Amino acid sequence: xxxxxxxxxxxxxxxxxxxxxxxxxxxxxxxxxxxxxxxxxxxxxxxxxxxxxxxxxxxxxxxxxxxxxxxxxxxxxxxxxxxxxxxxxxxxxxxxxxxxxxxxxxxxxxxxxxxxxxxxxxxxxxxxxxxxxxxxxxxxxxxxxxxxxxxxxxxxxxxxxxxxxxxxxxxxxxxxxxxxxxxxxxxxxxxxxxxxxxxxxxxxxxxxxxxxxxxxxxxxxxxx
Length: 224
Prior knowledge:
By secondary structure, the protein is mainly alpha-helical. The protein folds into two domains: 2-100 and 198-223, no CATH class; 108-184, no CATH class. The chain has nine helices and two strands; from the N terminus they run ααααββααααα. It has helices spanning 2-8, 16-32, 36-42, 47-59, 74-100, 103-112, 117-146, 157-184, 203-223, and strands at 64-67, 70-73. The protein has a two-stranded antiparallel ribbon. It is globular.
């Protein structure tokens, strides 16, 4: 979170800090032994931000400049670069955190940080049941293929849209059953205990985390 705050706080027009912040992420990923290909594939979640950033030079107003024969907004170009840099670095930081932290430990850490209980519970249930929902979608896909379905043209869209609706209804019904089961077991709106390990972070772990954030902030200020 501290690293992301450093990234977001980078002023518009200051691009060198992003290089230093990227170097910090490369160092952390290397120490964690994460494969670059794995992180690059996971960056697909950033596609909506990329699409919006690519449209900004065409949609923004103000002075323009010629780029490869296109008249693009100068403010839009700066905004697109800042959006791409900040979103990419923030997503990479989140991916590294997710790849190096077990989901129950992550949820337990959010509880210890006193994040709103409702948000922690929603995240905890999402982690617990995401695998079940994904398995349900895989079974539906296998059922479509076994019936000769081939989604290669526009004629397949009605079947796909029906599958999406059916999957949503089944997921909603599963959530209702889970909620009723929780109520039957005495659920009163609060989780009874932390979902992860009860081990507290050691001083050395706090020191390393604080050092990374402070080092990133100092490096960003120096390169600004």
